[in-house]
Amino acid sequence: xxxxxxxxxxxxxxxxxxxxxxxxxxxxxxxxxxxxxxxxxxxxxxxxxxxxxxxxxxxxxxxxxxxxxxxxxxxxxxxxxxxxxxxxxxxxxxxxxxxxxxxxxxxxxxxxxxxxxxxxxxxxxxxxxxxxxxxxxxxxxxxxxxxxxxxxxxxxxxxxxxxxxxxxxxxxxxxxxxxxxxxxxxxxxxxxxxxxxxxxxxxxxxxxxxxxxxxxxxxxxxxxxxxxxxxxxxxxxxxxxxxxxxxxxxxxxxxxxxxxxxxxxxxxxxxxxxxxxxxxxxxxxxxxxxxxxxxxxxxxxxxxxxxxxxxxxxxxxxxxxxxxxxxxxxxxxxxxxxxxxxxxxxxxxxxxxxxxxxxxxxxxxxxxxxxxxxxxxxxxxxx
Length: 383
What we know:
By secondary structure, the protein is of the alpha/beta class. It folds into two domains: 1-314, P-loop containing nucleotide triphosphate hydrolases (Rossmann fold, 3-Layer(aba) Sandwich), CATH 3.40.50.300; 317-382, Immunoglobulin-like (Sandwich). It has helices spanning 14-27, 43-47, 69-76, 78-88, 96-101, 107-122, 135-174, 181-201, 217-232, 258-272, 291-301, and strands at 2-8, 32-36, 56-59, 62-66, 127-131, 207-213, 237-245, 278-282, 317-320, 325-329, 338-343, 346-351, 354-359, 371-375, 378-382. The strands form three sheets. An eight-stranded mixed sheet has the order 3-4-2-5-1-6-7-8, sandwiched between helices. The longest helix is centred in the middle third of the chain and has 40 residues, at 135-174. The chain starts with a strand and ends with a strand. The relative contact order is 0.14.
């Protein structure tokens, strides 16, 4: 099974590109599910069909759904949710306020990601196309499995032992109910799902991310930042889709000044993403919506390439044991934007406002870092 995730700045046409790709793959004879994780769903609008939390048949071999994050949340953490609710209503009684407080920032989005894992493990489809939220939200989603599973992995065994040892005393004195074993079972279940999800998303033979951009400078800049952060977290970007290209006949008169700006933007995309396959989509004289239009454009975007294939793959990390060097590919990052810290057996690498913690390579776990340099898009750390 293949999973193809579309991301990019808001308004660049991610939903249309994801929908068109789904149409093209379905027309080749494969069974496809296209789904939206964006809270402001517009996938159904693109197909001009009502979609819900269960798959709806759009055409032969093609199905669509729009994730209901509240529903997915309620399905994912039953006992844990009830325990938190018990704590919140201990003094004040049950009410709508308690329900609102149980909506933790980011948690619903994480449960939306579990739908990707569920669809993959069901094996019901040949291809899953995911229309993600705008760039910032997508990056948050993709970071959750690693960060939360790491945190829970550290604290869960300690907390479980601690509750068994001192829980009855605390419960008696403070009048606070201690979590039952089924609450910890829920946490372990969620942790297991997060780890499976993380392994899946990092499987570059299965999962590809495709960045959608337009030729405008400000959008290209965000696409570059997006690209760098995705590489920081080891996700495979296998294509760049350049949308909303004005055809020459539309650049006359009032829009003539845009000719040079668009050419500059297209040149920057060509140079910046030189290795990655790029596909260009001209602005049409009609809206990119309805099944017929999406099927038409879907058959043209990729030309002779198969949109269901992994179109590009680059080794992001490499460990040179002989020269005791770890190389990490971080395209578009500037030397002055990078920060590197070592603490114990962990490395923290930050690029602007995005950071990631890496476990030290086992071979160098006890050694001191002797130096680090950034050149040709690679951060090289030596021991």
